[in-house]
Fold this sequence. Notes:
Helix content is about 10%, strand content about 50%. The chain has two helices and 48 strands. The protein is mainly beta.
Amino acid sequence: MAGRDTGALLVGLLVLFHTWGAWAAVQVYMEDRVETFRGKTAPIACMFTLNDSIGEVVMQWFYVTRGGEKQRIYFQNSTVKFKLPDTPFADRITVNETGGTSGVVLNIADVQLSDELEFICLIRHITDGTAEGRTKLKVFVTPDRPTIEGVQTGISVTELKTSKIGTCEVKNGYPKPNITWYRNKMPLRNEPDEVKVMSSSTTESSGLFSVTSELSLKVKEEDKDAEFYCEVTYFVPGETRMTESDPINITVYYPSTAVNAWVELPKGKIKEGDSVEIHCYGNGNTPATYTIKHKAMEFNMDLNMLVLNNVTRLDSGNYQCVYLDIDTYEELYKDVTLFVNYLDPAVVMPKGSVEVAQGAELMATCNALSSLQTETVWFKDGQEFSKGHILTLKDATFDTAGTYTCVVTVPEIEEMQTSGTLHVYVQSPPEIMKPDNTEIEESFENTVDLRCHVRGFPAPNVTWSTSDGKVLKSASQQETVEGVLLSVVSFKVTSDITAFCNASNEYGTDALAFNIKARGNGVVIAVIIICILLLAILGSVLYYLYKKGKICGRSGKQDLTKEKSNKDNIVVEMKSDNTEEAVLLGVNGEKLPSDQ
């Protein structure tokens, strides 16, 4: 790089020298300045021309100290060339001749800030005299990236003087960098009472510069969204460069000029029992207090919000938001209207329960006071019965009796509803609901359960009886569905029998018969009779054998008396175990006299 720069330099100098050579004996030309980065090698060219090329040429290099003195660093003639010792450049300079031209280049390696001096090339010819040229060496160092810090506290637009916005700093540059402030990409310049930029610089021990700039403004409301940053301009060899800091924002306090209040929650219409949020905000951001006034009450707001829990219709009305600026004590007001919709409990007429005669007509009403339009539906046994607030029951029967529920709803607010009930009783004599089967077969000695469903109003008295006049005790009695009484009786089956369910109230009576047949009763009787006959025959045979002497009985030998009898007669003696009386039966069942 240094070689290419040096070559271009020499060519330019030669052209110029040939132009000037017509009127000067010894002519020396050097650039006014040579620029380089710290740590690089700086080539300083020295071009000269002579009228007489014969004779000795002496070349010397000097630098001018900061005190203005010339200090030689290099000497060369036709016989010797050497660097002066004990100079800052003794170990860092070389001098190169240019081939075929009258010129040399002084190369300074590892350039430092202290090398930023003026260098002199002196040429002396034995016949043409002496001439010199001068070049200033400029050294550059690229600064660090700038840093920026904004104020952490808010700034009020009511401040009468400019307020500090932030500080920008750039370090370790050479030459000294410049700082320019920007707001939304527009440069800021000093402007009395509006913009103030103060910059200061520090020279570090290294010789580098650090620059600090402070921006102060008289802020406006629009500055709350503005971006501020600083731009650093610095120099490098042959050009000027720039870099930017990160942007910052500031907090701007500005008073409210208007305040707004509204119901945030719930969305839509409000009903009793809701929790209501009223919000209140000013269009400024200066410290302020917010309160809500309603009738004779005043509420402090938490985070600009008032919560009313479980509201009622009494909470309806005007709510006034009061904004008070803490700095200026200026007050602003905003009203918001709150309306709480309501639905009173349903009122059913007639109330509670009603009795109606069989065949009669009943009219009932269901109403609920509401701030909105309502709809009414009547239900019976969970099924929709009719619509409208009037319930009409014609030609009342057993099926008319029951519980009727009216449900009042508000179509505009889904959750709003109320209900009421009416119990309808139909005056009637008892009616026993006949089961599918009243003819019952049950095994002998088993227990049978009989059930009797009875309806009627007033509630009938249910009793049980049998065909042989016995009264059965009911095992249980309960109401299964509304208006239907279930009575259950249990008893053991010992024979065929008929059981009666009897129901009665002040309007009449009703009865239902259950015919019960005992399975297996005739077979048992027949078996008993057969067993008795077999026992009788066995007893007769044993007695006959005893009389004939075929069987020894009692305690010893006993003679049996032979009785004469007709061959046509067969006599059987029957004797009881506890009497001595014997009965002789003839074949035809006649009673014969005993021979005892």
